[in-house]
């Protein structure tokens, strides 16, 4: 369900703290930024367990470094801001970025009466600028005094940057008469190429689980969802996705592992698809499915080569059934022993290429019908192997260029 269901043991609050308006003189903030939520706190009941995955970008942001360290402790709160990524703000333990990120955790911890290391910080926004600390110092107390259980929808709005819509989803299932709920929120629109999960995502559940159990479930869920989406091939410095379990349902995860994993997979895949559908300037939602590879790696290599091709993506935007661009992308994929005669390509149910050659029954009119759709499936057969993988992507439109050309201006 697209509506958000509350999770017992989770309270939150959001505010416009002026972070999006506090950029230096080289960045012009929109007048709308004075009204947008940009700072939130999520408080977790005692005993909640939290797992997380983070960006693989070497230049990971200060909050990622702090969060990785704090994850060794029992987490009792999340603090999230948009408008400033606190990335590229210095190297080493003395960097201003690390100091500011830790200070934000300290401010939250003091107001909640918990330890600093029990807070996970997250930031998203413009890279290369120090956090405007006054925005945090002036608003943390107000946020803590405003914590309520039904504010996750506002947190979902808080984390938006170039997103046009918020991304939320909940799932429920029953075990022995007990109802288990999983609720997730995410942000992401551009700078999307998963090397973990290129976005911010926060998932909450009332299941009872250890951190290790949650980590295994989250890793599986991310690999089949956030790690299968791409808008532009760029991996952010700030990517993070968390899974927090309050245990308030009284049901242990070991009593329903399959059901829980299945529901969690639905939550993450639904959020991942919403990110693609809200891709910067996107007009098409595209699945690239590769079959017959000797390995998952080969299938993903072909799928991403096609999904990242500017020529393929612009043809998709133009609704131009230019199958030669798809064929050329497949041919340059970095996999061993790709045989031309084993390659077949489909647009929807229309066969373009059969066994390496143009299908004699194919017509341009058939291709045009498929390319005119807002949701398109490109299926590529590369052999007789058992592996099959899909990635989801967008077209490349004029608006993508405009959005990113004007991001700081």
From TrEMBL:
EC number: 2.3.1.35, 2.3.1.1
Pathway entry: Amino-acid biosynthesis; L-arginine biosynthesis; N(2)-acetyl-L-ornithine from L-glutamate: step 1/4; Amino-acid biosynthesis; L-arginine biosynthesis; L-ornithine and N-acetyl-L-glutamate from L-glutamate and N(2)-acetyl-L-ornithine (cyclic): step 1/1
GO terms for biological process, alphabetical: L-arginine biosynthetic process; ornithine biosynthetic process
Top-level taxon in the UniProt lineage: Bacteria
Major localisation: cytoplasm
Reactions mediated catalytically: N(2)-acetyl-L-ornithine + L-glutamate = N-acetyl-L-glutamate + L-ornithine; L-glutamate + acetyl-CoA = N-acetyl-L-glutamate + CoA + H(+)
Keyword annotations of the record: Acyltransferase, Amino-acid biosynthesis, Arginine biosynthesis, Autocatalytic cleavage, Cytoplasm, Multifunctional enzyme, Transferase
Site residues, Involved in the stabilization of negative charge on the oxyanion by the formation of the oxyanion hole: 124-125
Localization per Swiss-Prot or TrEMBL: Cytoplasm
Active site: residue positions: 198
GO CC annotation: cytoplasm
Function recorded in the entry: Catalyzes two activities which are involved in the cyclic version of arginine biosynthesis: the synthesis of N-acetylglutamate from glutamate and acetyl-CoA as the acetyl donor, and of ornithine by transacetylation between N(2)-acetylornithine and glutamate.
Entry-linked HAMAP family: ArgJ
Family: Belongs to the ArgJ family.
Subunit structure of this chain's protein: Heterotetramer of two alpha and two beta chains.
Name of the protein described by the UniProt record: Arginine biosynthesis bifunctional protein ArgJ
UniProt organism field: Candidatus Ruthia endofausta
